[in-house]
Amino acid sequence: MRILKYLFLLLLLSIVALSIFVATQKGNFSVERSKIINSPKSSIYNFVNDFNNWKDWNSLAVEDSLIIITLSQNTIGNGSTLSWEAEQGDGDIQTVNIKENDSISQKMNFNGNSADVVMNFKDTLGKTKVTWKAKGKMGFLFKVLTTFNGGAEKIFGLMFEKSLVNLDKKLDYEINTYSVKVNGLTNYPETFYLAQTFTSEFSKVGKNSGIVFSKITKFCEENNISISGKPFIIYRTYDNTNELTKLSICIPIKDPIFISEGSDISSDTLKPFQAIKTTLTGDYSHTKKALDKALAYFRSKYIKPDTSFSHIEVFAIGKKEINNPSKWTTEIYYPIKQRVVAKPTEIIPQTTEEVAPKPPVEKEIPSEF
Question: 54: closest CA among 80, 89, 30, 23?
Answer without folding.
Answer: 80
